[in-house]
Structures
1.
Amino acid sequence: MIDAVLILRYAAPIAFAAVGETAGQRAGMINIGLEGTMLTSAFVATKVSLATGSPWVGIIVGAVAGLILALLTGVFTIRMQQDQVVVGTAVNLLCFGLCGMLFERWNGATGQLLSLPPLPKFAGGLDVVLLLLVVSAVAISFALFRTEWGLRARTAGEYPASLEAAGYSVIRTQFQALLISGLMAGLGGAYYAIGVAGSFAPDMISGRGFMAIAIVTFARWKPIWGLLSACLVGYFESLQYQLQMTHQDIPKSLLIALPYAATLLILVFSGRSSNAPAALGQPYKGMR
Amino acid sequence: MKSFLLSLSIGALALFGCSGGESNTAANSSVASPEAATTSFKVALLTPGPVNDSGWSALAYEGLEAIKTDLGAETSNQVAQGNDIKESMRSYAQKGYNLVFGHGFEYNEPGVQVAKDFPDTIFVSSSGSATAKNAGAIRFYLEQSFYLAGVLAANVSKSGTVGMVGGPDVPSIRSTFKAFRAGAEAAKPGVKVLEVFTGKNDDVAAARQVADTMIKSGADVLIHQANAAAQGVFTACKDGKAWALGANLNQNDNESGVVIGSATISAKAAFLEVAKLVKEKKFDGTVVQLGMEKGAIDFVFNDKLKSQLPEAAIKAVESAKADILSGKIVAPKDKF
């Protein structure tokens, strides 16, 4: 039995982050800090939605938290031209530590099971944020490939010197793309807490941020493919749970690995990509 | 080059910010005099996950806190997994800790090995069967209450299908699930028991998705071994109008209002007991089995929902409980 809406909902956190990261990477920015960003946004969304009683305020403030972390990342990677992987790792460590510490401070050292106000759903199980996910994947795809801004962003990721030579600011363009990446990861994290899990646990993102980064490559740096790939992984995930129930004799660990194995396999057979932005991850130091 | 150095220093800052304090204290206390070690009683706890998981690790932390307040011990706790386990054990032993708890079967073997090098420190793991002169284990017989939970689930279920949602696929969880299955099948032969592991510790969404899937497949009573992800199971049960069973801690008062009973461990008494033995130098490297008869394990009904359950179900659990206490029923448990 395949329930498309359920698959979309459980895949949404990774999909949000992957679609946003596609925009960032097209402009040359690898945001390794997605995992920590998603966790922080989930945490902020949890705290705010519990305090205000409104899931909407929680999601919005959670998304803003993602924006702020992207801004912080940008100051180091774009302004100060630091290594993106190192800065992203530092952001992750900062987020894990901070969220864990504050969670304990507010819920006691032994933790607490939290239950968050749910989002209202339309008939069929869709909600506004899921629609927003689909719309934003299309919009980001359009912006990247059909607008002048998109041309600038992609130039910043391919050969930033030519963008500067044409009279545009590489710094501004990369900042814009990175902020999109942070905002989307923030939405993904906040939606994970409020729309998907309905709760918060300090380690609950469980690698979804890193999965999102892998999916960007897997989807050949195309936002809509990113959304679809996230859903494909989500489909394997739900298939794997079904198989665990119907085939009790297969070792569970094998089935748990299925989504990852399937993804790897497709990656192997779909060949090498030539879509990777040429200047991906390289700090731009200006024209010499 | 300059930027490379800068980025290196940022990375270094991030890394050492977390561990710097630890190594300092290690250096200081390794030279502590033997007198200092005898005057203060020091107890450490290693857990497989953060102690804020509202479950397995949390209950060990409660035990450690009890040792601190009741015995006036100096305590410390740390998350240690895989290769870090021995390292953390050695580091605590070097700091002069008298007792190091490892909360899980995975600390048993490393404890016995490290114990050889540190005869003045006692290593005790929760579960496990290997022992040495100064290493042993507490074996919580949680299978007993999971058996009872299975009896209740099978009796309460109208669909004849019940489910178990696990986090990581580890021996201790598998063993409790076997007992749950045994209890359910003993109570209602032919009952269908679904079993799914998410493979992850804290993944609330995965737990909820699994519970959702089980309810859609007809399960109407679910138990979990998902620690901090348990809320996902409870919320799914609330949405899908199914009953839930709590595990490890008493989770009957969960906001979802669907938890009809909990299979609980009271680690506090056990940890305190072991710590007392160690403090009085009476610990002799054994496996202490703690089950229902010692009050360490229990199955607790949710009094608020008891009236909604069939009377026969409650009676079945109570008679099974009496049979376990009298030894007539032996809940199955794996050796690990």
Note: Chain A touches chain B through 50 residues (CB under 8 Å).
2.
Amino acid sequence: MSLSPAAQQFLKGAKDGLPFHIVIWPFAAIFGAIATQAGLNVVEVMGFSILVIAGSAQLAALQLMTENAPTLIVLATALAVNLRMGMYSAAITPHLGKSSLLTRAFAAYMLYDQPYALSTIKFEKEPNLSLSEKLGYFFGAAIPIAIAWYALTLGGALLGEKIPTDIGVDFAVPVTFLALVAPMLKTPAHLASALTSGVLVLVLGFMPYGSGLLIAAAAALVVGAQVEIWMEKRKAAT
Amino acid sequence: MIEASTTQIWIIIVGMAIGTFLIRFSFLGLVGDRPLPAWLLRLLRYTPVAVLPAVVAPMLLGTKADTDPLRLFCAAATILVGIWTKNVLWAIITGLGLFFGLGAVIG
């Protein structure tokens, strides 16, 4: 059996996405369960998971809705949580920008944390992949996790109260992100960028609606690129 | 319990769906295959390390966070194992394994 190069990359993406299922399954089930317990019906719960696919924004919206925050505040906060995905869009554009408008729209729909992180790490390591191979890898990373997200949300919504929601699964989210970032801390530039990001966001913690995150991330981008330039100059000088 | 009406709930769902899609589509849709300048590409290479720590740090250390020594210890272990093994799966297993394992022992 011989698979096309794109199909091979799809399988690689799906395989590299496997670790995230450990986190996505309980996370989706718990979202479904607490949304149902808060009073949403199954169609509404699935509307969130299928139309939005953004776990942390969905949880943030749910939290605010149970506090009876005004609709506009709920929307603004949830979208602020998702603003980081504008950077994901920028980062993936050099790799997937040549594909058709429809493909790009579908990729945008699935541009959540895990496929973004897996793909940008992969494409930096293997810049010579063709467009169809890159698309294969991206959708291989994205589609199985998205399907698990829908299915387990539904399971959680149907089981509702039978699912214990207070077992500290929220800790799975920071662990996932740290596990993604740690292997990338391989140069002084990457390390400096990550430290800037983590420290600055805490310093800017007083800023409303997660806007500190955007400033911290932008500063960290500049620090990373600048340290890279310094290191290159030092190398050239010695 | 959520007291919002069905209409309000669907305004939130559809609004989040459209807004989130537009954020994700922004560069991908508008820039497309036009070449980006080299300095911008250099910046963009740092997006994962520049964005994700800023997402995580407030969850662990922010004023609203549920900061406890167990979580911080497990987070540190996740980072160290991730750097050491360069493997996402081992890092996740270490972090969550220690968290739930030690959590069960300590109670």
Note: Chain A touches chain B through 101 residues (CB under 8 Å).
